Structures are given as C-alpha cells and as structure tokens.
Amino acid sequence: PFGRRLRRPDAQIHAAMIRASTKVIALSLALLAHAALAEEDSGSCDPSYECKWDDGSKGWDLSPLCSTSDLQVVDQFNHTYFFRICGQVSATCYPNWPNNANLGVAIQNWGSTLTGTCFDKNGDTHACTKPCEVLGTGPPIDWGPLQGNAALGVYHTFKGAQSTWQDPNWCGVDPKTGQEYPRQVDYVVKCDPSATQLVIEGAAQSPSNDCSYTITVRSVHGCPFDVSSGGISGGWAFIIILLCLTVLYVGGGFGYHKLTRQEWTHPHSAWWAYFAELVRDGFRFTISGFRVNRGVPRSHPVGTVPVSADAGYQGEATAPPGNYTDL
C-alpha cells in the first residue's frame, strides 16, 4: 500500500533486495552486451568485412575462418599472396612507386625486398617492401554460389584501388569511363564436409586479365545451410533472455512478499504505479499539443467554471465581462 510505512527490519530487507536486483540487472545487461559484441566481432574478424551472406534460401557463415595471422599461397609464377578471410592482412605494400592503397584484404608480391625508403601517395616515408600490389580493399562487392550451385560452395569478390600513373603494372583503360580498370580478387570457398580445417588449394592470375585474381580454399564452412534452419538471431536471443529476466523479476518479487508479509504484492508496485502515471501524463501532454494544462479542463472554455447540478446553482456558467462567477 502507498501509505504503509515499513518497519525497520522490513526496510533493511527491502533495501537489500533492491541492491541485489540492481546488481543482477546490471550484470545481465553487461553479459548481453558482451554476447552482442562477440557475435558482431568473432575472434579476429573485421566487422566491416561482412562474413555472412545468404540468397534467401541458402546461407554461408565464414566467420569461423577468421585468422589472427596472414594466410599465404604461392602461384605458378612465384608470386606470393597474403590474404585473410574476414579481415585485413597485416602485411603492407610499399614498393618503389606510390600506390593508392598500401593495406587490404589481399596483397601480391614478388622478387626481392627493395632497399631504401619508399613513399605512399601522401608523400610519407616507409621502409620499402618487395614489389607488390594490393588486390582488394574494403568489404566484398559481390557474393554468389559457385557456378550457380550452392552445393559447390560460395565466392565473394573484392575490388582494389586504382593504380597511380607511376605504377608500372597497368590494368588497361575502361572505354566507358576512360579510367584504368581496378584490380579485383575472388575468394572461392569450396564446400568440403571433411575439411574441418581450412585447406588452401592455390592462387591464380587470370590469363586474359592481368588484374583479376582468384584465391581458392576448401572448408566445411563453404557448405551452405538452410536459412530457415540457421538458428535464432541475436535479436531473438535478446528478447528471450529479456522475457526470462522479466518473469524472474515479477515472480521473485511476488514470492518474496508472500513469504515475508503473507501478501500477494510486489516490492516495487508503488514505483511501477508512479511510472505508469508518468507515462499517462506524457501521452496527455503530447495529445494536448505540448501545452500545459493548469487545472481548467480543456472541455471548458477559459474563463468559465463547470457547474455541478448537485450544487443547486442553475444560472449561466459563463461569467459576464468584468464580473466573476459567484461560487
């Protein structure tokens, strides 16, 4: 009850329960936030990389293939490729010509390490690396099932930055735009149910387009799953946990008062009643056009007083100009 004063032991127990409830709620929110961050950034995954994709019926989740170190593969021309799935490589690319990009998801290099100091596009100096090119940057620009067949696996494509005019490895000019074609790399992830560990098959440079590359791997995570049976999302998990906590809070509160006071009431019922009043006042304030009602109901014009039939006054309710209503 609103007017009931708590006895000292009850007040101490009530305060202790509020402190315990606050700690439980704070801990629950922290765990939920941690779970959300863990789902968003699994291991060394780059959140902007977009490791998950589906076509409406089949889906792929490549986040288990995240790696804390660069993966490497060498092609038939002795070019070395540094790449990561779901992240940017730690390797850098500072050849003896300025590049528009020095970091990316995949880098190709060859030859011997250059000596001296090299520059980036901003003129800043760096230790030279081997001659190299950045093959892809940013998130994937395209996804799709291999050869249109989801059972074979999935591919995703990255676009690299356009070369500078000093770059000796030109990619040709696009007749539509008049600018040089950007480099492009395809990650092909084949479906192999037996490949519980990532298997790197190889890398290749297109024989018809020197600026198009393919890196091929095999993994069980290249096998699709049905989107409808892919498990509950993080949002639904949050809703389920929130509902469970609500039931625990409400049921625990009523149970506590039943055990200590033999009453089917909740320790925080007065606070929730007050909160409901605040919500109702907020709705009224919004509906009234954000105008403050200072005691005269809006159904009666300003300057008038509603007359009750029980008061015995049968006269005009509206006061004449210059006079006051005699109550």
What does this structure look like?
This protein is α+β, with helices and mostly antiparallel strands and 327 residues long. 24% of the residues lie in helices and 22% in strands. The chain contains 3 helices and 13 strands; from the N terminus they run H-E-E-E-E-E-E-E-E-E-E-E-E-E-H-H. The strands form 3 sheets. The protein has an 8-stranded mixed beta sheet with strand order 3-4-5-8-9-10-12-11, with no helix packed on it. Strands 1-2-13 form a 3-stranded antiparallel beta sheet, with no helix packed on it. Strands 6-7 form a two-stranded antiparallel sheet. Strand 1 and strand 2 (58-61) form a beta hairpin. The chain starts with 7 loop residues before the first helix and ends in a 40-residue tail after the last helix.
Question: Could you tell me the number of beta strands?
Answer: 13
SSE order in H/E notation?
Answer: HEEEEEEEEEEEEEHH
Mean of pLDDT: 79
Question: Helical percent range?
Answer: 10-25%
What is the makeup of the main sheet?
8 strands, mixed
- Based on CA atoms alone, the radius of gyration comes out at 35 Å
Q: Distance N terminus to C terminus?
A: 36 Å
Class by SSE composition: alpha+beta
Which spans have pLDDT < 50 for at least 5 consecutive residues?
1-8, 34-43, 298-320
Report the total helices.
3
Form type: elongated
Percentage beta strand: 15-25%
- The spatial strand order of the largest sheet comes to 3-4-5-8-9-10-12-11
